[in-house]
Amino acid sequence: MLNIKTYQDFAKFLEKKLKPQGAVFAVGITAFMRFFPALFLQNFKIITFKDSKDNKVLEKYAEIFCLKKRKPGIKLRFSNANNLLRNKTVRNYISGYRGNKILFLYRSNNNIQNAVKDLGVKIIANKSKINKIFENKANFRKVMDKVKIKPIFGKTFEFGEFNSQDYKFFKKKYGPKFVIQLPDFMLGGGKGTLFIKGEKDFKKFKAQIKEGKYKGKILTVVNITKFIEGISCSVVCCATKYGTLVSKIQRQIIDIPQIISPKKGNGLFCGHVFGPEFSQQIVKQSQEIAAKLGRYMYKSGYKGIFGIDLIVNEKQNKVYSVECNARYTGAFPMLSMIHLKYKIIPLDLFHFLEFLEIPYKINVAQLNQMYQKSISGSHIVLSNTKEHSLKVKKELEVGVYNFNAKNKKITFKKEAIFYEDLVSDNDFILVDGVPKKGAEIKKWSRLARICHVLFKGDILKANGQLKPKYMQIVKAIYGNLF
């Protein structure tokens, strides 16, 4: 049995690597978002769609099967794991492996589970029916009640009841500003959340759903909650047989109009700031929420990584739980890379130990103290903010760059992708789907993502927008690509 207490225990895995009973096939549209477990797992392979520049760099850590490289003319109707796993070329690649086959997914669903039935694979992801218990925003309110977590004041309305009421009705109950959550719209990144700041916003939303649909999705229920002033935050957790491991609170970067189109909605995910410091009261509340929820999730059959979105009100020293992301979250692999820099055991390790059923032993309280260690770093996801597709005119390399504040230009320094390679606050890393010359970046879709940018420190102003220097860096990156 593996007895894991210190980072040195994890470092042994980095040297020798754990040996699962078969090959692990990670699936993702870009290779970067799935590469990290290759550092501690043998026989780790990545199946990806995009033929981006960082694939060459990531091949140092894992075998990469790129569908777009094998079939340059191929187009997927939707860029997701389900369509990748239904592709004949991908299926032949997996089937060609003669040993045990293990599939590592960001998130599973019924379509994927049906698609891989005949491939004889073991899936490292929780089943869709378990995910939905916690990811559905209406169900989550019921779960919070069961585990004695006080939710934000609000109610789940049947769609017909909601649709029959006007702005004054909800204003009287929840105040002039309130939040609409759409439980039927189970997409990450805030795409099913709307902030209603006045009657104009409410009427606009009502006009969008007059046919009982929102962005093509039929609505059955609507959550309405009071608008809580505070900082959008989250914690990453790992539900294990010994209890719930909980990361340091991370600040969410949302609604930055220069890097994501505001026409997509409100509360749109753009990245994280890792390591902001909060009072002991706030930290304790976040850990208590995670422990209660994680315990219930594990007893319900869920295990491994999940995330909890929070609102932190520092004036009141109060933490409010908003929703649960029962899956790998957008904090990965960046959080794991930050942990690696600060000699903290990455949460991924315990996710894989649980699913691979490798015997291990840990002290949850001791590890959770480790996760409160001071850390620093940020990341943002750049995307096409225009109302039309963009063509990449000039290539940028994958790796570390330096920004010159005087002439506003960026200079490539070296090929590297880890946070420890960032020396100053003027340094940044380009990685994750960095496009080649001639590539087309779609508008407002999953293929609108351009790449990730990693930074050494905190890049946000108090109001949640980017500090001027980092806004200039973003502008320079766009200018060099398009």
Question: What's the layout of helices and strands?
Answer:
Blueprint (H helix, E strand, L loop, with lengths): L1 E2 L3 H10 L6 E6 L15 E5 L5 H5 L4 E4 H4 L10 H6 L1 H8 L5 E4 L5 H6 L5 E4 L3 H8 L1 H10 L7 E5 H5 L3 H8 L3 E4 L11 E4 L2 H10 L4 E2 L2 E2 L2 E6 L4 E10 L2 E4 L3 E5 L14 E6 L5 H20 L4 E10 L4 E8 L8 H8 L6 H8 L4 E2 L2 H7 L6 E7 L6 E2 L7 E6 L4 E6 L12 E5 L8 E2 L7 E7 L12 H14 L1
Parallel strand pairs: 1-19, 2-3, 2-5, 3-4, 5-6
Antiparallel strand pairs: 7-12, 8-9, 8-12, 10-11, 13-14, 13-15, 13-17, 15-16, 16-20, 17-18, 20-26, 21-25, 22-23, 22-24, 24-26
Helix pairs in contact: 7-8
Explained architecture:
This protein has 482 residues and is of the alpha+beta class. Helix content is 28%, strand content 27%. It contains 16 helices and 26 strands. Strands 13, 14, 15, 16, 17, 18, 20, 22, 23, 24 and 26 form an eleven-stranded antiparallel sheet that branches. A five-stranded parallel sheet has the order 4-3-2-5-6. The protein has a four-stranded antiparallel sheet with strand order 7-12-8-9.
